[in-house]
Specification:
Immunoglobulin-like; 5 domains; mainly beta; 0% helix
């Protein structure tokens, strides 16, 4: 008859090539994941032996890891999980951002730090097999750079200059001029606006840590005044050289006239006399300045023409002792070509005619064959001026003997 015995020895073989274990209850750390046949051999006090083989699956431990971009104060920072596991998948993520405030269970969390400094960020990941692991990476939260700039107030069609005075190791500048144009190259750009107006210019600066911050200032592109004027008349003569100038400019505060004859005037409207000018075209320039110093210019031309005037003595005496009083010839200005003079007696008979302004009437008649008697005669002069216009002049002259 058999009697019950007691187990007196144990032998564990974990199937991974490690040493045998003779403890009744064993704790074993497998060096790798995989499937293993674990064998237990027990012996009783009666010398009886029994063996049990049971398969064991060892799951891999995940490898936690993450990467980050620049972590900047008061700016959203993305933490990117790059944890791995050889079989299966990561099932959960547990983040601790190390500032005593921030926790997250997202795979790719975004966090904003409220103070700069060093922080130990911890990530614990758990696989779909229930295995977990954690890692701690120290990060630095950087302060933001300080963007500062100034921009000129300019007149339309003049370039605006921008001066950057940002600080904290700036390496990049990005300008937005609010007119659809940008500059990501120049630290101190010069920009030409097409239209007048107030523009909200934005500057974003980036420092050596990759942190960025922006600021905006308003710059004024002032509209130009409009210079314009009327002149009346547009053509004058040497004998009547007065011109009225009517200012029709808009947006001006100061007006500077230049009449083209070496004279100037500061005022709104004016009347100008070209008293010492010769014939020709004179450029009249009006420069209009507004309160900001912006200006516009208008130029028009005034034309001064010569006057055609004939002067004639009212008497002459061929026997005079004064040479010029012995003959009769009208004189004048503005006579260019086609001079003709005719002399008529009281009965309307033509007694003398010449086409030569240098051939005066000497008091004879009928081609110098007859001496005209003392009397009052009618003279008639036809001339052509420098513009080709014809003029005629009529008068009386007394022939004395």
């Amino acid at each position: 008859m058999s009697t019950p015995g007691n187990i007196t020895s144990w032998e564990w073989d974990f199937g991974d090539g490690s040493a045998l274990d003779n403890n009744k209850n064993s704790i074993h750390v497998f060096p790798a994941s995989g499937d293993f046949n674990v064998t237990l051999v027990v012996v009783s006090n009666n010398g009886c032996t029994d063996t049990l083989v049971q398969p064991v699956t060892v799951f891999p431990v995940p490898t936690p890891n993450f990467i980050k971009g620049p972590v900047c104060l008061n700016e959203p920072s993305t933490f990117s999980d790059v944890s791995t596991v050889t079989t299966g998948a990561i099932a959960t993520w547990n983040w601790d951002f190390g500032d005593g405030l921030g926790l997250s269970f997202d795979q790719q969390p975004v966090y904003v730090y409220g103070a700069f400094g060093l922080y130990d960020v911890a990530l614990t990941v758990t696989s779909d097999s229930g295995c977990n692991a954690d890692t701690v990476i120290r990060i630095e939260v950087f302060t933001l750079p300080t963007p500062v700039f100034t921009g000129d107030t300019v007149c339309q069609r003049n370039p605006s200059s921008f001066t950057d005075s940002s600080f904290s190791n700036i390496v990049k500048w990005a300008w937005d001029f609010e007119d659809g144009t940008y500059d990501t190259i120049n630290q101190h750009p010069i920009h030409l606006y097409d239209s007048a107006g107030t523009y909200n210019v934005t500057l974003m600066v980036t420092d050596t840590n990759g942190c960025s911050q922006s600021t905006a200032n308003q710059v004024l592109v002032a509209p130009l005044p409009t210079a314009d004027f009327d002149l009346d008349p547009q053509e004058v003569t040497l004998l009547s050289p007065t011109v009225n100038f009517t200012n029709t400019s808009t947006g001006g505060a100061v007006y500077l006239w230049d009449f083209g004859d070496f004279t100037t005037y500061t005022g709104f409207d004016t009347l100008h006399i070209y008293g010492d000018a010769d014939t020709g075209a004179y450029p009249v320039q009006l420069i209009v300045y507004d309160s900001l110093g912006c200006s516009d210019t208008m130029v028009q031309f005034i034309v001064i023409k010569g006057s055609t005037v004939v002067y004639a003595p009212n008497a002459f005496n061929p026997r005079s002792d004064i040479e010029k009083n012995k003959v009769f010839i009208p004189e004048g200005i503005g006579i260019v070509d086609e001079f003709n003079m005719q002399i008529y007696n009281r009965w309307g008979d033509l007694i003398y005619e010449t086409d030569d302004i240098n051939k005066p009437w000497d008091g004879t008649a009928n081609n110098s064959r007859k001496i005209a008697q003392m009397d009052v005669y009618v003279w008639w002069v036809h001339v052509t001026d420098m513009d080709g216009k014809k003029h005629q002049f009529v008068g009386h002259v007394t022939l004395l003997r």
